[in-house]
Specification:
Largest sheet: 4 strands, antiparallel
Oligomer: single chain
Helix content: 10-25%
Strand content: 25-35%
Number of strands: 4
Number of domains: 1
Structural class: alpha+beta
Length: about 70
C-alpha cells in the first residue's frame, strides 16, 4: 500500500526538475541516499533506485533529523 502526499498530509510534489545530491562523505560504492532541496520540503531517495520511491519531509523535520544525527 502506498501513501500519496494528500494521505500523508504532505503536498504531491513534482520532482522532475529536482537536483539530487549525495554527501561528500559518500564512499562511492553505490549504497547511498541522495537528497533534493525543494524549498519548504526535502526529498530523499536511494541512489541505486533513482526511479523508485522518494521520501518527502518538511524542511523543519529534516533539519531536526540532521541535528539529532550530529549530536549522536
Amino acid at each position: 500500500m502506498s501513501t500519496t502526499g494528500a494521505e500523508s498530509g504532505l503536498p504531491e510534489l513534482d520532482l522532475t526538475d529536482a537536483v539530487w545530491k549525495k554527501s561528500t562523505y559518500s564512499g562511492g560504492n553505490g549504497s547511498c541516499v541522495e537528497i533534493a532541496d525543494l524549498g519548504e520540503h526535502v526529498a530523499v531517495r536511494d541512489s541505486k533506485d533513482k526511479a523508485g520511491p522518494k521520501l518527502i519531509f518538511p524542511r523543519e523535520v529534516w533539519g531536526a533529523f540532521i541535528a539529532e544525527l550530529k549530536r549522536a
